[in-house]
Design goal:
Length: about 100
C-alpha cells in the first residue's frame, strides 16, 4: 500500500508539472516568432512587434530592443487576430493581432 501511495504521489507531480503548449489549429506554436500588431490599453497606442509564445506566456519584442511578457487566457488560440493578454507587471491589458499564417 505504501508503494502504491508513493507512486501515485510521484505521478501527480509529473502530471501537474507538465506545461501546456500554445496551439493554433492543433499545432504547437511555442518558441516560434510571429509578426504582430499589439494594442496597449495602457498607452492607447498600436505597436508593430514580434511575439513568441511559451504556453500561456507571450513575449512581445519591440523594435527598440525592449520586451515585455504578457499572459493569455487560453493556450488554444481560436482567432489569432484577436488575442487578449494581460501584463501582470504593469497591470495593463493588451490586444494582439498575430500573423500565424
Amino acid at each position: 500500500m505504501k508503494k502504491f501511495l508513493v507512486i501515485l504521489i510521484i505521478a501527480g507531480f509529473i502530471i501537474s508539472s507538465q506545461v501546456m503548449a500554445a496551439e493554433y489549429n492543433g499545432y504547437d506554436i511555442d518558441g516560434e516568432s510571429f509578426s504582430c500588431t499589439a494594442y496597449s490599453y495602457d498607452t492607447g497606442n498600436y505597436y508593430y512587434v514580434t511575439v513568441e509564445f511559451s504556453g500561456s506566456d507571450v513575449t512581445i519584442y519591440f523594435d527598440n530592443g525592449g520586451y515585455i511578457t504578457v499572459t493569455i487566457d487560453d493556450e488554444e488560440i481560436d482567432d489569432p487576430s484577436s488575442i487578449s493578454a494581460y501584463d501582470y507587471a504593469k497591470g495593463a491589458y493588451w490586444d494582439l493581432d498575430v500573423d500565424l499564417d
